[in-house]
Specification:
Elements: E1 2-7, E2 24-29, E3 32-36, H1 46-49, E4 53-55, H2 61-64, E5 74-78, H3 79-85, E6 93-96, E7 102-104, E8 107-114, E9 122-129, E10 132-136, H4 146-149, E11 155-159, E12 167-171, E13 174-178, H5 181-191, E14 195-199, H6 203-206, H7 211-222, E15 225-228, E16 234-236
Parallel strand pairs: 3-4, 4-5, 5-6, 10-11, 11-14, 14-15
Antiparallel strand pairs: 1-2, 1-16, 2-3, 7-8, 8-9, 9-10, 12-13
Helix pairs in contact: 5-7
């Protein structure tokens, strides 16, 4: 199984040589190429990716607006996602249920609800093939029942919107926003997740050449191998 980070930029105006397109990652295995999220930057470029399926985490524009003119393949999303984009011309659509595994080729995707937005409720995905388990969540403030969500996870791919302090605000009794990278590294350390990669990079990462070194240092102090993704990064998962 391979992971290809097609885009790693969050919903920000600035970009860099390494972070140009909205966050999207392909899970590739044999002939299958599952694209996770398809934001506005991908509106005219989905055919370049040649996905066999698209899986969506939530309905913010930097994760779904590439589908405004339809999709060349089947699209998986929660009921909350389809509530937002149900009128778009996506011919092959599937509803993903929380904690219900969906098999796409030889890879299994399990949606895990997370706290990020009230308007666009988000999920992360436990991605499994054989003994390899990844938890993928590009936008997150909190993960309820986190230890269960991280059980047997080998690799965490998380939210790089902010490095040291969370970005959060209250909406009624709820909090919404983004957890800091440092907090997410701590989550991994407490759950025994050995490796973390951060995508959906915010201004604190994209505009700061030292951010990557700071994030690596969080990992060294916590016993987690930690790094920042960039557009075009490809890694193999045993």
């Amino acid at each position: 199984m391979r992971l290809i980070f097609l885009g790693t930029r969050g919903n920000i105006d600035i970009m860099s040589r390494l972070d140009r397109r909205h966050t999207s990652t392909v899970v590739a295995h044999r002939r299958d190429r599952v694209m996770i999220d398809c934001g506005a930057d991908w509106l005219h470029h989905i055919s370049d990716v040649q996905p066999t399926a698209i899986v969506l985490t939530h309905a913010h524009s930097d994760h779904v607006d590439g589908l405004k003119r339809g999709s060349p393949c089947v699209v998986y999303g929660t009921a909350a996602v389809w509530k937002h984009i149900g009128k778009w011309p996506v011919e092959q659509r599937r509803i993903v249920l929380p904690h219900r595994a969906v098999r796409i080729g030889d890879v299994t995707f399990e949606a895990v609800p997370v706290r990020h937005s009230l308007r666009a409720p988000a999920v992360g995905y436990r991605i499994t093939r054989g003994h390899s388990r990844i938890f993928y969540v590009p936008d997150v403030l909190e993960i309820p029942r986190r230890m269960k969500a991280f059980a047997d996870v080998n690799l965490y791919i998380g939210d790089g919107a902010t490095v040291r302090r969370p970005i959060q605000r209250r909406q009624g009794d709820a909090r919404v926003g983004h957890a800091s990278v440092s907090d997410q590294v701590d989550w991994c350390a407490r759950a025994g997740v050995p490796r973390a990669i951060f995508t959906h990079c915010g201004t604190a990462v994209v505009a700061n050449d030292d951010a990557g070194r700071a994030i690596e240092s969080f990992g060294r102090s916590s016993g987690v191998a930690t790094s920042v993704a960039y557009d075009g990064l490809e890694i193999r998962i045993p």
